[in-house]
Design brief:
Oligomer: single chain
Distance between the termini: 24 Å
Strand order of the largest sheet: 2-1-3-4-5
Structural class: alpha/beta
Order of helices and strands: EHEHEHEHEHHHHHHH
Largest sheet: 5 strands, parallel
Helix content: 40-55%
Radius of gyration: 17 Å
Number of helices: 11
Number of strands: 5
CATH architecture of the largest domain: 3-Layer(aba) Sandwich
CATH topology of the largest domain: Rossmann fold
CATH superfamily of the largest domain: Response regulator
Number of domains: 2
Strand content: 5-15%
Length: 224
């Protein structure tokens, strides 16, 4: 069984310890790397991001404003799957992290079982938003506007992908990091990144989350 690698960024030692213990209880062999500041987080992502399965990220670190840390992480490792853990639950924050490509948004008020469910869900390729936040965002129209540019009109040409691009898309939907896709398809990192870029262009997407949502709407058989 493959060892899962998690990156965990939070400045509260109790939260870091609790989530690390939860991951260890679920997967005794899990590789959990932690950081407690923005500087440590960036070093961790640069060193381990291309082989990590998931980054669990607290947005509210000292000296960090809004989503600037996440934006820098996305710039460094655009393929890294990110689950945002935050005390901020306003619609604007939810919308912004989804626009940046987060695979999920989890309020810190969520209980441990729900957090475990969220981790499972995003690792399988889903985009996790708690039902209460989803309902509030939909009523406000935020998520509708976020995804508006991804909608395809009836008169537009269908998206065509090569068989290899479909293979890569399927693994993106499974939450696989670049290194794992390289191993499973026996391709170089440069080749995989070229396929990913082509997939993004085909769907008019700027990140993994947008590409998967657009692929699902376009009729591709992927689970979200």
């Amino acid at each position: 069984m493959r060892v899962m690698k998690y990156l965990l960024v939070d400045d509260h030692a109790l939260i870091t310890s609790a989530i690390s213990m939860m991951l260890a209880d679920r997967e005794p062999d899990a590789d959990v790397r932690t950081a407690s500041s923005a500087e440590e987080a960036l070093r961790l992502v640069e060193a381990e991001g291309d082989t990590a399965d998931l980054l669990i990220l607290d947005l509210s670190l000292p000296g960090v404003s809004g989503t600037e840390l996440m934006e820098e992480i996305v710039r460094i490792q655009p393929m890294l799957k990110i689950l945002v853990l935050s005390g901020l639950t306003d619609q604007e924050s939810v919308m912004r992290v989804l626009q940046l490509g987060a695979a999920g948004f989890v309020p810190k008020s969520l209980d441990a079982d729900m957090l475990a469910d969220a981790i499972d869900f995003v690792l399988k390729g889903g985009v996790f938003i708690p039902s209460k936040l989803l309902a509030e965002s939909q009523r406000a129209g935020f998520l509708t506007r976020t995804a508006e540019h991804l909608k395809r009109g009836d008169n537009e040409e269908p998206v065509h992908l090569t068989e290899r691009q479909k293979d890569v898309l399927a693994r993106l939907a499974q939450g696989a990091p670049i290194k794992r896709i390289c191993r499973e398809l026996n391709l170089s990192e440069g080749t995989v990144k070229t396929h990913v870029a082509a997939i993004y262009r085909a769907f008019g997407a700027s990140n993994r989350t947008e590409a998967l949502l657009a692929a699902r709407r376009a009729g591709f058989d992927i689970d979200l």
